[in-house]
Amino acid sequence: RRVFEPESLLNNYSPTIQEEEFKWLLQEEVHAVLKQLQDILKEASHRFALSVGGSEAAVKQENFMLGSSSTDQVKGVLTLQGDALCQADINMKMPRNNQLLHFAFREDKQWKLQQIQDARNHVNQAIYLLTNRDVDYQFKTGSEVLKLMDAVMLQLTRARNRLTTPATLTLPEIASSGLTKMFTPALPSDILVNFYINLNKLCLTVYQLHALQPNSTKHFRPAGGSILHNPGAMFEFGSQRYEVSHVHKVECVVPWLNDALVFFTVSLQLCQQLKDKISVFSGYWNYRPY
Questions:
Q1: Which position among 81, 150, 151, 239 has the lowest Cβ density within 10 Å, counted as fewest Cβ atoms?
Q2: What is the pLDDT of residue 58?
Q3: Strand 234-237 relative to strand 240-253, pairing
Q4: Which family is this sequence assigned to (predicted)?
């Protein structure tokens, strides 16, 4: 009875249809997919108003009207320039006395949106991974392609997560963020504001605070980190304790952020499809370097 010996099979090996298909996949289709990915991600990079080479282009300013379906307590216009919020013009009606407040960024101030900046950096890192080889480079193994796809997918997932997962902040972190010092006239001491990206929306949250008296009988329990704090949340800042009395969240859709998220999804699907095709062939040559 003959014993199966991989070595003897290798010595008498002749190319099969499957191997020819695998070679074609490595030599032709992989490069076609990489080119397609480069084109898509360059479009995504253009949406972030940064050229692939890394130099800042002239970025136009875009105005967005803040809106909410639940309240008209806060209205305003935000001016976005790439990853910078360069103006925020906000009107707010105080619930207690219907007093109308108006505040806007000082002329010399702008607020960097770190989420957009980070997402853009991850996109450019993915492009670098896709283009960082000679034009005539040929992939030799499936594992080499899988490794590249995993690295690209990691950057794209991080880019997407930066837009879909806003940072959780404590109320003292919001109070000390520097955002409160950007407005003219200065914000009242009983108002906090926070800006963040959530999916394709630029969001503004306004917190109205109630100062707790030192002899207050309320059980003080400081709130932890959250994307959005609810009325009743308490915190201490400086030597004063506060409670959130009202929360107003308004937002505006940024169309090019939606485009970028679509590009991320399509690119991730292309990467996964190529990984699946490579993996199909791995079973044909278990004894070959893969």
A1: 239
A2: 62
A3: antiparallel
A4: Belongs to the rogdi family.
Report the percent of the chain where pLDDT is more than 70.
85
Q: Could you give the CA distance from residue 162 to residue 260 in angstroms, rounded to a whole number?
A: 12
Q: Is the pLDDT of residue 202 over 90?
A: yes
Q: Are 243 and 233 in contact (CB under 8 A)?
A: yes
* Rounded Cα distance, 165 and 135, in Å: 37
Quick check: 223 and 235 in contact, CB under 8 A? Answer: yes
Q: Which of 210, 207, 217, 205 shows the shortest CA–CA distance to 240?
A: 210
Is the distance from CB of 43 to CB of 266 less than 8 angstroms? no
Q: Cα separations (Å) of 81 from 66, 124, 153, 164, 259?
A: 16, 19, 28, 20, 17
Please state, in angstroms and as integers, the Cα–Cα distance from residue 59 to each residue in 47, 48, 84, 253, 262, following that order.
Answer: 10, 9, 10, 18, 22
The residue ranges of every structural domain in the chain are 6-54+116-164+257-285, 62-112+167-255
Write down the H helix ranges in the chain: 6-11, 17-24, 30-47, 114-131, 142-164, 171-175, 255-282
